[in-house]
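Example 3.2
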Amino acid sequence: MDKVNTYTSTGNKLLRQGCLLESWNKGIPIPQSLQVAPTEYCSLRCSFCSVANRKNKHVFKYENLIEATANFIKLGVKTVEITGGGDPLCYPKLNQYIKWLASQGMKIGMITNSVGLNRVLTADSLDVLSWLRISANVLDYKDKIEIPKNFKGTLGFSYVWADEQDHLPQLKRIRDIAINNNVAYVRLVPNCLATIEQQKKNNLFLADVAKAISPPVFFQKKEFKSPSNCYWGYVKPFLYCDEYVYPCSSTVLNPDADKQFNSSYRWCHYTDVLSVWTRKIQSIVDTTRCSHCVFHDQNMMLDYALNERLHEEFV
């Protein structure tokens, strides 16, 4: 199994969305997957946190969250990924939101550090999740990973190699926990707060680390490269708890974002999305700002699909 293209958003999954691309060819954008960060609060303070400078004041008002999500469902969204921000488990009405999403026919995934998972998530919520990805870096701060029992969806771990220390013993420990608990994968990623040059070194080093460790560990490299145009938000918009939509989740990595969802990167308010998606498609942000973009390849696919090329039938 190609785990990068199965369990991550920086692979070639876009090529499998025929209806989306056909519509895109005609200049009609359809959002496929909605990322939602319902709260800025978190139970941990990870050293590599890409939103370390958030103010911990934004929590999505539940009624507005429902309205915002409903707007995206009207536009054609098929899946919802509940993520951070902070940690979704800190959102007071998380179970209520998951139940509502399921009632709307949404496929649902969630990313969490697992702190309080078995206390917060009800069995009904767990039963409707298509997948759950737990940050195994929780073991750098807590004694255990809280793993749900009898989980029906795909359970995965992610581990950020945060600095130049030797994390190999910890990674092996995580691999063993994964094997003993039927975890489908352990995604190893570099610290995305690194410089461009350092990230090149990190990718080479960690690719070798992953090869030296047996499955289910796999490495997902993170390459920083600015695309000529930014379209990814039309396909996978990021709805933040300040009630604004952002072009993607990687805007926080840019140096001028100051480790937060900086207001200068806001695309539109959630009440405006129905009109935004009916306008002519245009680049969402000035990409010269996006030195740490990790969606270059996806943006280039969309750029090519949007603009007619000579002899394009000759593949």
